[in-house]
Amino acid sequence: MGCNCGGQQPYVRRAITVYRLTMPDSTQRDYPTSQEAEAANARSGNIGTIAVVTPASPDARRT
């Protein structure tokens, strides 16, 4: 029996966006929202840089 998805396309996972805070000593920390990354950077004295990262899917298949 098929899915009851209302005639839409099959479910496709959305890309995950991660905000990565990199400090001058090369330590990195990932945050789920830009607000969290900015707050962590502010707590450290605004010395880090924030980059938007879209990691590959964990099972290495295209999503």
TrEMBL record:
Q: Which InterPro entries match?
A: DUF7196 (IPR055620)
* Residue ranges constituting the DUF7196 domain according to the UniProt record: 1-55
State the name under which the record lists this protein. Answer: DUF7196 domain-containing protein
Source domain of life is: Bacteria
Source organism (scientific name)? Streptomyces sp. R39
Which Pfam families does this UniProt record tie to the protein? DUF7196
